[in-house]
Design brief:
- This protein is of the alpha/beta class.
- It has 2 domains: 133 residues, Response regulator (Rossmann fold), CATH 3.40.50; 192 residues, Hypothetical protein af1432.
- Helices cover 62% and strands 7% of the residues.
- The protein contains 15 helices and 5 strands.
- Helix 6 crosses helix 12 and helix 6 crosses helix 14.
- The longest helix is centred in the middle third of the chain and has 57 residues.
Length: 361
């Protein structure tokens, strides 16, 4: 237990130092002036402060006021030493945060009793702080493990969707990365941006319930098939929404709302404007960008420039204007994500060809 001693009188300072040495497991940190103390902050570490009230330049209260400007000292108990018995002085010390007083000349027996009580209090407080820190770390560890399991569930569900349509897996990962980029430009908190990236791959999980004749159909869908395909939003939301996991609930929210339109003409619930969750509005932009820039059974891929122009032109009708503006700011990052994905696909294709050639050889 380290005890800060501040007294401009060298005799008193030596006496206080000797008295501290007699306390169990206590170490004195003597200072002969307030200036010397202030020069040592904030690197100085102590658990209790014993400060003389009457000193030049700074009195004890003024010194302590300067000390507690540093957050690390805010909870340190302070004892003032004073020969002044005036109530005004003592009230000023109490208002500053004093926990006790010692009257000059200091009585060694009284010092031992009063300071030992404060030492016991400081030790108990430290133990509570240590326990609180241990509990915080345990909670943080448990939450981290839970989040890892949630991410594993999402990853496994994404793999399941890939069995229905191999392109779905790459599409969901691109949409997730684009969505995070838009969320960042919207100024959302970093943990929210990260959660959106983790949850977004599940936006089309409801398509596992679609028959292959509809999901993998070459060419345009009939009106009946299109209505059937639209049901994937509600199915996906229902699959994910029954979980108590906050991450899967976010994924459910995205699944249900990423086909809603700002003007209320979307599906499944025809929500309008800000009634659409922000996560759904973000993924709506990202999903449309990816759908347009990639080849589909019913259309060729659009160019990057044409797709950007299309999305910017639909701000306020199909898309949230703020999300479109954030999309515009995120375009350098979005283009880098798209190009990286294309490089990876080419590398995978090259590996597949090489592997096939080896088998033939």
């Amino acid at each position: 237990m380290r005890i800060l001693l501040v007294d401009d009188n060298s005799t008193n300072l030596k006496l206080l130092t000797k008295l501290v040495a007699k306390l169990d497991h206590c170490e004195a940190l003597p200072f002969a002036s307030p200036d010397a103390v202030l020069s040592a902050l904030p690197e100085l570490d102590f658990d209790i402060a014993i400060i003389d009230y009457q000193m030049p330049v700074y009195n004890g209260v003024e010194l302590y006021t300067e000390i507690v400007r540093f957050e690390k000292y805010a909870e340190v108990p302070v004892i003032f030493v004073t020969a002044d018995k005036d109530m005004t002085t003592r009230m000023a010390a109490l208002n500053a945060g004093a926990i006790d007083f010692l009257t000059k000349p200091v009585n060694p027996v009284e010092f031992q009793a009063r300071v030992q009580n404060i030492v016991s209090l400081a030790r108990a407080r430290r133990q509570l702080a240590d326990q609180a820190e241990w509990l915080r770390r345990e909670v943080e560890r448990a939450v981290g493990e839970l989040r890892e399991r949630e991410q594993e569930i999402i990853h496994r569900l994404t793999l399941a969707a890939e069995y229905k349509d191999p392109e779905t897996a790459r599409h969901t990962l691109r949409v997730a990365a684009y969505s995070e980029a838009i969320a960042i430009e919207l100024g959302l908190p970093s943990h929210v941006c990260h959660d959106i990236r983790l949850a977004a791959p599940m936006h089309d999980i409801g398509k596992v319930a679609m028959p292959d004749t509809v999901l993998l159909k070459q060419g345009r869908l009939t009106e009946a098939e299109y209505r059937q395909m639209q049901s994937h939003a509600e199915i996906g939301s229902d699959i994910l929404g029954r979980s108590r996991s906050s991450l899967l609930q976010l994924a459910s929210e995205i699944a249900a709302s990423h086909h809603e339109r700002w003007d209320g003409q979307g599906y499944p619930n025809r929500l309008v404007g800000t009634a659409i969750p922000i996560s759904g509005r973000i993924v709506c932009v990202a999903d449309n960008f990816d759908a347009l820039t990639t080849e589909r059974p019913y259309k060729p891929a659009w160019s990057f420039e044409r797709t950007v122009e299309h999305i910017l032109g639909r701000a306020g009708t199909q898309f949230d204007p703020d999300c479109v503006a954030a999309f515009g700011r995120a375009l350098p990052r979005i283009q880098a994500i798209m190009e990286q994905d294309r490089r990876e696909q080419m590398e995978e294709a090259d590996k597949a060809v090489a592997s096939a050639n080896e088998r033939v050889a």
